[in-house]
Amino acid sequence: MYITSCLSFHAVTHTTQAMVTSVPEDNTYLNMIPYTLTHALMVDLDPSDGWKKLLMAVESSQDDGPPLDRDFKAQLELCHRRMESPTEKLLSDLGQKGYRLHHLKTWLRAQGLLRAADLLEGAVNLCLSLLMLWLFPLLALYLLSL
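Structure (tokenized):
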């Protein structure tokens, strides 16, 4: 019983640590956020042309970072016409230019793209909830088995 409890506790601890470390911090570069979040944003922003609103927010806040190339919007339009994700390209390129997750959250909220902004906040809340759900009961079992 003791060995099984220790092994279970150890496995769950590593699983929850992996989930928590994969949750991006606000200072994470946009090209470094986990693909699951990028994909969720793509699913939300690409079909509704929300990426265009996001681009407008980026263009209106050029004081926060380096300027965008003049033909950047044309590249995104080309991605859209090719059935590729303009959101994915936008996030990748902005991350390479030094923009971070806190910028993205601000832009999404400013443009009224609240569902996409909530996806970013929800990822943090989900991982912390899972941590609480898994870690505390196993810790209690572990302590009772001592």
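The CA atoms of residues 52 and 111 lie 10 Å apart. The longest helix spans residues 114-144.
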